[in-house]
Write a structure and sequence with these properties.
The chain is mainly alpha-helical. It is built from 14 helices and 6 strands. It is 46% helix and 4% strand. The strands form 3 sheets. It has a two-stranded antiparallel ribbon. Strands 3-4 form a two-stranded antiparallel ribbon. A two-stranded antiparallel ribbon has the order 5-6. Strand 1 and strand 2 form a beta hairpin. The structure holds ligand BD7 and zinc ion (ZN).
Length: 321
């Protein structure tokens, strides 16, 4: 069997395990600012392939705690980096998957997250103030995993997301920004967590999402853009939440994702022939899981975490199978 007809699970597991070992090559140092996010990406990909034990649990929890920024009350993406809401979400996602939330001071983290909400209702990523609907999703996802959604000003949060809805049914990074599949994912997933999917024009948005599929089977993030494996997840997750997964040709998309695998060293790239990375490896197997690829563990599309973990916390929605 060649690589573009089956998922090379053992190779992808070996690739993810090797990431922490090659500390000498340049890529390792160039990606220090994403390290904690990359651990969430690697761990979640392993969970989907049912190989969670491939990485050492205590060593991982130790690294997460080494990224704690005690002054801010949040996590940075690397030891001694400033706290950021993206890294804080990754830290919480890792600890929830490893059943180790008892290691953190939950009220302190909740205070950090809530401190980032702006008067407009949008969230900033950190104290430097860059705002983006991505960060609103991080806040809603993290507070939900911590069981503290009751402390969020839901109306203000929803009002800002509503103001980012475009005529094509999609959402942008901020008011007036064009629709982009990544931003559609974060806005639809945040509204799903808040039980406010009534804010979405389901038919219009599902049509815009289905329009992302190109003749080669891959999905792009915006009209006229190139196909990219990670957009498979952003688009499929939003369609899954809208219960319109059937609007995508899943056989052609699965073949596209499988063709982006590196058949020698493992890993998945953004498109066939490019360099693999752990980000596209996660979102490739995540998309295959949503498409029902045989032997993969069910993924919750809203949290991008194993469905069993979300189920155990009582966070699955009534409309989810
Ligand atoms: C910072 N970043 C990006 O900008 C990527 C770059 C890219 C990958 N393929 C095409 N471009 N873009 C990206 O993640 O866009 C998807 C997205 C945009 C906005 C909101 C949500 C998703 C990637 C890292 C990366 C950089 C360069 C190459 C590969 C991965 C990244 O960290 N993305 C974030 C996007 C994101 C952020 C927050 C979330 O809650 C969910 C997703 C992430 O996945 N965090 O866990
Ligand atoms: Zn990509």
């Amino acid at each position: 069997m060649t690589s573009d007809s089956e998922l090379l699970v053992p190779l992808h597991v070996a690739y993810i395990k090797s990431l922490g070992e090659n500390k000498d090559d340049l890529v390792y140092h160039m990606t220090a600012h994403l390290r904690l996010n990359a651990i969430y990406w690697g761990l979640t990909a392993l969970c989907i392939m049912n190989q969670k034990e491939a990485l050492d649990r205590e060593e991982m929890i130790g690294f997460v705690m080494s990224c704690w920024d005690d002054e801010a009350g949040g996590f940075g993406a690397h030891p001694d980096h400033d706290a950021h809401i993206l890294a804080t979400l990754s830290a919480i996602q890792i600890l929830v998957i490893q059943d180790a939330l008892d290691r953190i001071d939950i009220p302190r983290v909740v205070k950090f997250i809530l401190s980032l909400q702006q008067p407009s209702g949008v969230f900033a990523g950190d104290s430097f103030g860059e705002v983006d609907t991505r960060f609103s999703y991080c806040a809603v996802n993290a507070l939900s995993l911590l069981g503290k959604l009751s402390e969020l000003d839901v109306e203000k949060t929803v009002a800002y997301i509503r103001s980012c809805k475009n005529f094509d049914g999609g959402f942008g990074a901020c008011i007036g920004a064009e629709s982009h599949a990544g931003q559609v994912f974060v806005c639809v997933a945040a509204l799903a967590i808040l039980d406010r999917l009534d804010e979405v024009d389901h038919e219009t948005l599902a049509w815009w999402l289905a329009e992302r599929q190109l003749p080669n089977g891959g999905l792009n993030g915006r009209p006229e853009k190139l196909e990219d494996v990670c957009y498979s997840f952003w688009v499929l997750s939003a369609l899954s939440i809208l219960q319109k997964l059937s609007w995508i040709d899943s056989d052609k998309l699965s073949s596209f994702i499988l063709s982006a695998q590196d058949p020698d060293s493992g890993g998945i790239a953004d498109r066939p022939g490019d360099m693999v990375d752990v980000f596209h490896t996660l979102f490739g197997v995540a998309a295959l899981s949503l498409l029902g690829y045989p032997g993969l563990v069910d993924l919750d599309p809203v949290y991008c975490m194993p469905a069993s973990v979300i189920e155990a916390k009582g966070l699955r929605k009534s409309w989810q199978a």
